[in-house]
From TrEMBL:
GO biological process: cGAS/STING signaling pathway; defense response to virus; innate immune response; positive regulation of non-canonical NF-kappaB signal transduction; positive regulation of type I interferon-mediated signaling pathway; protein monoubiquitination; regulation of type I interferon production
Originating organism: Capra hircus
Record-given protein name: E3 ubiquitin-protein ligase TRIM56
Domain of life: Eukaryota
Ranges annotated as biased composition (Polar residues): 383-402
Database matches in PANTHER family: BONUS, ISOFORM C-RELATED (PTHR25462), E3 UBIQUITIN-PROTEIN LIGASE TRIM56 (PTHR25462:SF299)
Domain B box-type: 164-205
Pfam families: zf-B_box, zf-RING_UBOX
Gene3D superfamilies cross-referenced by the UniProt entry: Classic Zinc Finger, TolB, C-terminal domain, Zinc/RING finger domain, C3HC4 (zinc finger)
Enzyme class name: transferase
A GO cellular component entry from the record: nucleoplasm
Signal peptide: none
Residue span, RING-type domain: 21-60
Length: 733
C-alpha cells in the first residue's frame, strides 16, 4: 500500500518551487489552472495554445481551449493567496531603507509617509509607529492584529497572516468573497449577493466547505488506493522482469552445457536456439519497458494531482477550496475511474527441452518452450493442489526429465542422457488431464543481434568447443566522493582477486575486489588523470597525458618518463615477470625496468612498418607475447618479445569496427572487445578468430576496457562506469 501523503506545511509551499511557473521558470503571474490541476502563467499558456487545444507541458494531457481563450481557465485563488503573502514579505530590503507608511499620505498635509515599523495583518498595510499606535485606538480597527515589520518580513507571522487573508471579489474591488451560491456554484461578495443571486440559496463559505470537504476527501482516498495498485503493479512488473532474466541466464548455461557434449556439427543449432532465446528476451524486455514507462507516467500524474488536492485542502482558504472544488473533483474522479489494465500478457519464461535425434541437418537437439509466469501466491497454491499428482518432474534449472519410477511416484532425473521423443509423447499422454501451458517453436526465429557471428574457424578442429563465460557479478564504480560520473580508461589485476580501476574523469585509481567491494584508492600525483594502468611488484605504472609514471602503493612517485606528444593516449601493460612495464608510443613499444631505464624498444613487424602501426590497446600473454589493437591497420596483432609478428587478424569477424581492449587468459586465448557492436570475441594464441564470447545478450552495452584476473576471470567495464565479471570456463572442465 502507498502511504497516505502527509499534509504540506505553509513554509514548504512558500519556499519550494510550487509558486514558480514550469514554463517560464519565474514566479507565477495571473495563475490559471488546467483541468489536470497543473498551474501556469496566463501569458505562458496563451503561447502554447494551438488549433483550439492546449497540451499540458508536464503530464502531456490535451485539453480543449475555451472560446474565450486561456483567460476562461479557472483562476487559482489558492496560489494567488500564497503569492500575495510572498510579495508582502519581500516588499523591500529593510537594511537599505525602511518602506514608507501606507496611511501617512492619506492624512491631510502629509506629502510622504514616514518609515514603516509595523504591519497590520488585517489591512495588509505597512504602518509607521504613530499610525500603528493610532490603529489600535479606533472603533473599526482596534481588533486588528498589528505586528513588528521585521518579524513579519522574517516569516514569523506567516500562519497568522494566512488566517486573516480574504479572497477579493474580482467584480467589486474591496469586497471579500463571503458566500457560495449553491445552484450556480459561484463565490459571491455582499454586492453580488444582492443582484442576480438574491433568490438563490447561498451558504457562508465555512459552512459550504464543511459540507463539501468529505466528498473531496473520499475521492482523494480513492486516488490513493489507485496509487497503491499502480505501485504494486509496477513492482510486480520489475520482479517478473528479474525472474525472466534469471531464468534466461540459467537457460543459457543449460544450452552451453548441452552443446559441450556434442560434436561440432551441432554448433549451428546451438547458435540458432540462442538466437531464439535472445529474440524472445529482447522482445519481452522491450514490452516490459513500455509497460513500466506507462505505469510510471500514470503514477506520476496521479501522484501530482493527489498532492495538489491535498495541498489545497490543507492550506487553502474556504473560497479557494470551493473555487477549485469542481476541477479537483472532476480530475480525481477521472483518475479514480482509470484503473490499470495490463496491455500485454505476462512475460513467458523460457524452458529448455532436450530432443536428441539423428545427427543430420534436420536434427534439432535443442528446443525452447515458453511458460507463462504466475504470481508467487498462485504458484504456492498450485504446488499444494498438485502435491499428490504423478506429474512430470523437473530437474534443476528447469530442464524437464521424464518419470523413471511410476509405481511409487519416485522422481529421479535421468543422468547422462536426454529425453527421447517417445518418452516425451508418453509423458504428455499421462499428463493429459492437466492444461498444457507450454508452446513450442515450430518454425525458426531469426536472431536480432546487430551482426552475424562468424563461423568457427579451423582452429576448433580437434579442440572441442569454445571457452564459455559464466556470469560472476556486476557492480558500479561510482563512489560517494566522486564529483563526476566515472570514465573507466584502464583496468588491471591488483593482487589476489582484486582489480585496479583507472577513473580518468575523477582522477583516481580505485581498488575493488572481484565481488565489487571497494578497497580504497591508490593516491595519484596532483593534477594527474590516469589513463591506462598496470600493476607491478609493489608498484603501479600508469600513463597520464604524455607521461609514464611509476608510483608505490602510497602514491609516492618513483620515476616519470616523457612520452610522445603526437599520441592521444598511451597503453600500458605489465610483463609476465612483474618487474617491467611496456608502453605503446607512436607505433612502437617501449619496455622499462623498475628503475626507469629503457630495457628494449621495437616496432611490431620490424623497421619496415615504421609509421604504419598505432597500438591503442596493449597487453601481454603468459607466453611472453605482446598483443595489441592496431587502429592504423584496423587489426589485432600478436608479436614476440623481439617484435616479430607471429599472428595478425583483420578479417570480417571485426564487423568493420576498430579493435578495442584486449586481454589474454592463462592458456593464451585472446579476448578482443568490439565496442560498436557490443561484443567480446575470442581468438586463439596466434590471432585466429574462434567466435563470439560475450554479446549484448550478456549485458554488454558499450564495453570500454577489459582485463584478465588470475587467468580465469574476465573483467569488463562499460561506458556508464559499471563493471561485469565473468568466469572463463575452459574447454577441459
Amino acid at each position: 500500500m502507498v502511504s497516505q501523503g502527509s499534509s504540506p506545511s505553509l513554509l514548504e509551499a512558500l519556499s519550494s518551487d510550487f509558486l514558480a511557473c514550469k514554463i517560464c521558470l519565474e514566479q507565477l503571474q495571473v495563475p490559471k489552472t488546467l483541468p489536470c490541476l497543473h498551474t501556469y502563467c496566463q501569458d505562458c499558456l496563451a503561447q502554447l495554445a494551438e488549433g483550439g487545444r492546449l497540451r499540458c507541458p508536464e503530464c502531456r494531457e490535451s485539453v480543449p481551449l475555451p472560446p474565450a481563450g486561456v483567460v476562461a481557465f479557472k483562476t487559482n485563488f489558492f496560489v494567488n493567496g500564497l503569492l500575495d503573502l510572498v510579495k508582502a514579505r519581500a516588499g523591500g530590503d529593510l537594511r537599505a531603507g525602511k518602506p514608507a507608511c501606507a496611511l501617512c499620505p492619506l492624512m491631510g498635509g502629509a506629502s510622504a509617509g514616514g518609515p514603516a515599523t509595523a504591519r497590520c495583518l488585517d489591512c495588509a498595510d505597512d504602518l509607521c509607529q504613530a499610525c500603528a499606535d493610532g490603529h489600535r485606538c479606533t472603533r473599526q480597527t482596534h481588533s486588528h492584529r498589528v505586528v513588528d515589520l521585521v518579524g513579519y518580513r522574517a516569516g514569523w507571522y506567516d500562519e497568522e497572516a494566512r488566517e486573516r487573508q480574504a479572497a477579493q471579489c474580482p467584480q467589486h474591488p474591496g469586497e471579500a468573497l463571503r458566500f457560495l451560491c449553491q445552484p450556480c456554484s459561484q463565490l459571491l461578495c455582499r454586492e453580488c449577493r444582492l443582484d442576480p443571486h438574491l433568490d438563490h440559496p447561498c451558504l457562508p463559505l465555512a459552512e459550504a466547505v464543511r459540507a463539501r470537504r468529505p466528498g473531496l476527501e473520499e475521492l482523494l482516498a480513492g486516488v490513493d488506493n489507485n496509487l497503491a495498485e499502480l505501485e504494486a503493479t509496477r513492482l510486480a512488473e520489475k520482479e517478473a522482469l528479474a525472474r525472466l532474466r534469471e531464468q534466461a541466464s540459467k537457460v543459457v548455461t543449460q544450452v552451453e552445457e548441452a552443446a559441450e557434449r556434442v560434436l561440432r556439427a551441432l554448433l549451428a543449432q546451438k547458435q540458432e536456439v540462442l538466437g531464439q532465446l535472445r529474440a524472445h528476451v529482447e522482445a519481452a524486455e522491450e514490452a516490459a519497458r513500455e509497460r513500466l514507462g506507462e505505469l510510471e507516467g500514470r503514477e506520476q500524474v496521479a501522484r501530482e494531482a493527489a498532492a495538489f488536492a491535498r495541498r489545497v485542502l490543507s492550506l487553502g482558504r474556504e473560497a479557494e477550496i470551493l473555487s477549485l472544488e469542481g476541477a479537483i473533483a472532476q480530475r480525481l474522479r477521472q483518475l479514480q475511474g482509470c484503473p490499470w489494465v495490463p496491455g500485454a500478457a505476462p512475460c513467458q519464461l523460457p524452458q529448455l527441452e532436450l530432443h536428441p535425434g539423428l545427427l543430420d541437418k534436420n536434427c534439432h537437439l535443442l528446443r525452447l518452450s515458453f511458460e507463462e509466469q504466475q504470481p508467487q501466491d498462485s504458484k504456492k497454491d498450485g504446488a499444494q493442489s498438485q502435491g499428490g499428482d504423478a506429474t512430470q518432474p523437473q530437474s534443476r534449472d528447469g530442464v524437464q526429465t521424464p518419470d523413471q519410477d511410476r509405481e511409487d511416484g519416485a522422481k529421479t532425473p535421468k543422468e547422462g542422457r536426454a529425453q527421447t521423443p517417445q518418452e516425451d509423447g508418453g509423458t504428455q499422454a499421462r499428463g493429459g488431464g492437466r492444461s498444457n501451458k507450454k508452446r513450442k517453436f515450430k518454425g525458426r526465429l531469426k536472431s536480432i543481434s546487430r551482426e552475424p557471428s562468424p563461423a568457427p574457424g579451423p582452429n576448433l578442429e580437434g579442440s572441442g568447443l569454445l571457452p564459455r563465460p559464466i556470469f560472476f557479478c556486476t557492480f558500479p564504480t561510482r563512489m560517494p566522493g566522486d564529483k563526476r560520473a566515472p570514465r573507466i580508461t584502464g583496468l588491471c589485476p591488483f593482487g589476489s582477486r582484486e582489480i585496479l580501476v583507472a577513473d580518468e574523469q575523477n582522477r583516481a585509481l580505485k581498488r575493488f575486489s572481484l565481488n565489487g567491494d571497494y578497497r580504497g584508492a591508490v593516491p595519484v600525483p596532483e593534477g594527474c588523470s590516469p589513463c591506462s594502468v598496470a600493476a607491478l611488484q609493489d608498484a603501479v605504472a600508469f600513463s597520464a597525458a604524455a607521461r609514464l609514471y611509476l608510483i608505490n602503493h602510497n602514491g609516492e612517485v618513483q620515476w616519470r618518463r616523457a612520452l610522445s606528444l603526437c599520441q592521444a593516449s598511451h597503453a600500458v601493460a605489465a610483463m609476465p615477470s612483474g618487474d617491467r612495464v611496456a608502453v605503446s608510443v607512436s607505433g612502437h613499444v617501449e619496455v622499462y625496468n623498475m628503475e626507469g631505464s629503457l630495457a628494449t624498444r621495437f616496432i611490431p613487424g620490424g623497421k619496415a612498418n615504421r609509421g604504419l602501426r598505432a597500438l591503442v590497446f596493449l597487453t601481454t600473454s603468459p607466453q611472453g607475447h605482446f598483443v595489441g589493437s592496431d587502429w592504423q591497420q584496423n587489426s589485432l596483432v600478436v608479436c614476440d618479445g623481439l617484435g616479430q609478428v607471429v599472428g595478425e587478424y583483420r578479417g570480417p569477424g571485426l564487423h568493420g569496427c576498430q579493435p578495442g581492449s584486449v586481454s589474454v587468459d592463462k592458456k593464451g586465448y585472446i579476448f578482443l572487445t568490439l565496442r560498436e557492436v557490443n561484443k567480446v570475441v575470442i581468438l586463439d594464441p596466434k590471432g585466429s578468430l574462434l567466435g563470439d564470447f560475450l554479446t549484448a545478450y550478456h549485458g554488454l552495452e558499450k564495453p570500454r576496457v577489459t582485463t584478465m584476473v588470475d587467468g580465469r576471470y574476465l573483467v569488463v567495464s562499460l561506458s556508464n562506469g559499471t563493471i561485469h565479471v565473468f568466469r572463463v570456463r575452459p574447454l577441459d572442465s
